[in-house]
Design brief:
It is a single chain. Helices cover 63% and strands 4% of the residues. It has 328 residues and is mainly α. It has one domain (3-327). Strands 1-4-5 form a three-stranded mixed sheet. The chain has a two-stranded parallel sheet with strand order 2-3. Its EC number is 1.14.19.-.
């Protein structure tokens, strides 16, 4: 029996559990803002509040993402309505998120459809074939400041305002989501004042950066999976192309079981709140790439896909073209 068939019993939404998770997440999100505002300037308390807020934001995104797969609730219409409302918290228009994310799933591990993935990845051959400015661009793009700080801020605050493929998903989606988001921001400023809003923005930046770290480590590790379209095996791409972030139960709670991303890619109908239980039940047949904090942080060193060795490599593993060596 295939792993997908073994996972099938878990691909059933539990509406009560879904509602409870949304309530808990809402309390985390707004409770963290309140604490951050009251104790603004008390750095230990603020740090804890920022972590809780980031957890709330990531959990909201996880719920919206499940709604996009019609997996969070049993009713498709409820999934759509909740997904649209959650755009106020995730800064991501629901219909655009659903369309673009489904492309990511459809083309997981496909070298010929890399534009569907969150992080640009070049092959060693493409890097060698690029001109000086092309290689300089890719090195800058893959640098730690861009990947983990400037990039997330650009995506969260600017790119999501008009996401890609908006012509296919509709402008109403974008206008509605941006209105909801700015309405939420205005309410936080009006009710909580400038201190609450300052904490809110700081916490949003942290959430965006940490969420990007999770996604990066989830797909950009040494033994990731990439094949050309005619050779892609969906099950292998799903299970081998996504890592399991083994950071412990608090992390799993705060991130709505994002760690079990391999199983999610294999079977999108398993709601986030059932992913861990499913992963535990199938532990005897799964062979996940598990990573602790140190290994996940070190993933930033993997820059290029080597088609010969079938693994990610560092820039230092690749012989630079003479022009770039001279420039450095």
């Amino acid at each position: 029996m295939s792993i997908r068939k073994l996972a099938h019993p878990f691909a059933a939404p539990q509406n009560g559990v879904a509602v409870i998770n949304l309530i808990v997440t809402t309390v985390m999100y707004f409770g963290a803002i309140a604490i951050g505002a009251v104790y603004f300037g008390n750095y230990p308390v603020m740090a804890l509040a920022i972590i809780v807020f980031a957890g709330g934001g990531i959990r909201f995104f996880g719920a919206q993402h499940d709604c996009g797969h019609a997996a969070h609730f049993s009713n498709r219409k409820v999934n759509t309505i909740v997904g649209i409302v959650l755009g106020a918290f995730t800064a991501h228009p629901f219909y655009a998120m659903r369309y673009n994310h489904n492309l990511h799933h459809r083309h997981i591990g496909n070298l010929d459809e890399r534009e569907a993935h969150e992080v640009l990845t070049w092959t060693v051959a493409e890097y060698h074939a690029a001109g000086f400015w092309g290689r300089a661009f890719y090195r800058t793009y893959r640098s730690i400041p861009v990947i983990y700080f400037f990039g997330p801020i650009f995506i969260f605050f600017l790119r999501y305002r008009i996401p890609k493929n908006v012509s296919k998903t509709g402008w109403l989606d974008v206008i509605m989501q941006n209105g909801l988001m700015f309405g939420l921001w205005y309410a936080i400023y009006t009710i909580g004042g400038s201190t609450a809003f300052a904490f809110f923005m700081i916490a949003n930046v942290f959430a965006a950066c940490f969420g990007t770290f999770m996604v990066y480590a989830g797909h950009n590790f040494e033994e990731a999976y990439w094949e050309h379209e005619n050779a892609v095996d969906f099950e292998e791409a799903s299970l081998q192309g996504s890592s399991v972030l083994d950071f412990g139960p608090i992390f799993h709670f705060l991130t709505y079981n994002f760690a079990y991303h391999d199983l999610h890619h294999l079977y999108v109908k398993i709601p986030a709140y059932r992913l861990k239980a499913c992963h535990d039940a199938l532990a005897h047949v799964l062979e996940p790439t598990k990573m602790g904090w140190g290994e996940a942080i070190a993933c930033v060193k993997w820059k290029l896909w080597d088609e010969d060795s079938k693994r990610m490599v560092r820039f230092s593993d690749v012989k630079e073209p003479v022009a770039l060596q001279l420039a450095e």
